[in-house]
């Protein structure tokens, strides 16, 4: 039997281990102290906005309720529900760059989203010029809420390519932001009659599933001329510009669903836009295929889907919040200074059509929007002390300062909802 004798531990190994442990503790303590110092030194600096994030002065982290700067000086700092956000598609054609920029400033608010589109009739130089201008405006860069479509769509107003371009823009806006509540499509012929603070203030009290669309199911001889002809839109398949082709035959109206016609301009909820583009119900796609060979399909698509859907026909309001003037043949007339009082009394949010540089636009800017045409409309987020240049200093975008336009719009909504006619006039089969 063998006994294994282990040598006794030596003091040399113990001393070495102790020295290593001591050095390790000193090193770890030093590193921890340096990290602590660096942490405090960096945290004491003001945060810089991430290149992909909006400027913190426009969107600070604070309580979920907003402060209102009301037109009544005796009723300030009232807690109100958070304001909504709107996604705007602003479209134009060749020579419309300056009109789109003017319209953008007139409807601008840091909370909203904006998508600009110049169709294929505009040159690439015009699109590049528009993009460069947008990128040069510090406010747009800070809020990061103005985008533009680089690859333009063909748009023929009498064909279905106009509807295709609208759906394209709506799909992009769904992708760009998950925060907006309503979709509004504007053309270069449109112009607002109230400020965005006025509009957002009133919409904060409106259910976010409502859709404001002019519509009727009445099909008279004038409507039949728009719905029964068969057309071929060259914007769907030709690279070069061409005329819309009209077939000699006509087709009967569908009986699988009831057609409703109205205005191509509307105020649509985000949920409804998602239903049209992402929904599992096949009606939006079926109707889109049918309207691909119909003239003026943009004025039929949204009203027909709304009124044929059980989910959305109860959310439809038969008013698109716009003002327009018609002659005896129901043709839209261009607006001028003689229409100004009617515009104000209408309580509408937008009006159209306006010709480029018409003096009435200057009158609207001066008397209703209170801004210069190449500057944003002042709102609660503008903190500049200079009356002529308030929006060079930015504040919280949730702070609204509604004015007389909010009172006009409130009165209009009361007229729409109070007498019950909005229930009896929506999606009625005539």
UniProtKB/TrEMBL annotation:
<keyword id="KW-1133">Transmembrane helix</keyword>
<keyword id="KW-0808">Transferase</keyword>
<protein>
    <submittedName>
        <fullName>Uncharacterized protein</fullName>
    </submittedName>
</protein>
<dbReference type="GO" id="GO:0016020">
    <property type="term" value="C:membrane"/>
</dbReference>
<keyword id="KW-0472">Membrane</keyword>
<feature type="transmembrane region" description="Helical">
    <location>
        <begin position="20"/>
        <end position="42"/>
    </location>
</feature>
<dbReference type="Pfam" id="PF02485">
    <property type="entry name" value="Branch"/>
</dbReference>
<dbReference type="GO" id="GO:0016757">
    <property type="term" value="F:glycosyltransferase activity"/>
</dbReference>
<keyword id="KW-0812">Transmembrane</keyword>
<keyword id="KW-0328">Glycosyltransferase</keyword>
<keyword id="KW-0325">Glycoprotein</keyword>
<dbReference type="InterPro" id="IPR044610">
    <property type="entry name" value="GLCAT14A/B/C"/>
</dbReference>
<dbReference type="InterPro" id="IPR003406">
    <property type="entry name" value="Glyco_trans_14"/>
</dbReference>
């Amino acid at each position: 039997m063998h006994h294994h004798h282990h040598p006794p531990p030596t003091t040399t190994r113990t001393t070495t281990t102790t020295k290593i442990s001591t050095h390790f503790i000193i090193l770890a303590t030093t590193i921890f102290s340096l990290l602590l110092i660096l942490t405090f030194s960096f945290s004491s600096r003001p945060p810089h906005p991430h290149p992909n994030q909006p400027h913190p002065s426009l969107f600070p982290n604070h309580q979920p309720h907003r402060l209102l700067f009301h037109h009544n000086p005796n009723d300030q700092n009232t807690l109100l529900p958070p304001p909504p956000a709107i996604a705007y598609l602003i479209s134009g054609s060749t020579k419309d760059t300056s009109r789109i920029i003017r319209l953008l400033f007139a409807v601008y608010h840091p909370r909203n989203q904006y998508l600009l589109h110049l169709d294929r009739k505009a040159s690439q130089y015009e699109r590049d010029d528009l993009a460069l201008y947008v990128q040069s405006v510090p406010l747009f860069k800070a809020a990061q809420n103005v985008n533009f479509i680089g690859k333009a769509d063909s748009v023929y107003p009498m064909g279905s390519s106009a509807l295709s371009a609208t759906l394209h823009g709506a799909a992009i806006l769904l992708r760009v932001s998950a925060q907006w509540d309503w979709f509004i499509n504007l053309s270069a012929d449109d112009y607002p009659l109230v400020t965005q603070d006025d509009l957002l203030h009133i919409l904060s009290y409106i259910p976010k599933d409502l859709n404001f669309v002019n519509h009727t199911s009445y099909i008279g001889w004038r409507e039949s001329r728009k719905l029964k002809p068969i057309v071929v839109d060259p914007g769907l398949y030709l690279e070069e510009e061409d005329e819309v082709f009209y077939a000699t035959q006509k087709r009967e109206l569908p009986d699988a669903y009831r057609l409703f016609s109205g205005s191509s301009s509307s105020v649509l909820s985000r949920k409804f836009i998602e239903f049209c583009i992402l929904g599992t119900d096949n009606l939006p796609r079926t109707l889109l295929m049918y309207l691909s060979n119909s003239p003026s399909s943009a004025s039929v698509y949204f009203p027909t889907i709304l009124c044929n859907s059980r989910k959305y026909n109860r959310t439809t309001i038969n008013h698109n919040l716009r003002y327009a003037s018609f002659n005896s043949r129901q043709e839209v007339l261009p607006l001028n200074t003689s229409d100004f009082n009617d515009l104000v009394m209408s309580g509408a949010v937008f009006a159209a059509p306006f010709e480029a540089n018409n003096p009435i636009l200057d009158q609207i800017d001066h008397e209703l929007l209170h801004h210069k045409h190449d500057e944003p409309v002042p709102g609660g987020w503008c903190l500049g002390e200079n009356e002529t240049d308030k929006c060079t200093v930015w504040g919280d975008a949730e702070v609204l300062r509604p004015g007389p336009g909010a009172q006009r719009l409130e009165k209009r909504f009361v007229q729409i909802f109070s007498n019950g006619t909005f229930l009896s006039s929506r999606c009625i089969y005539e």
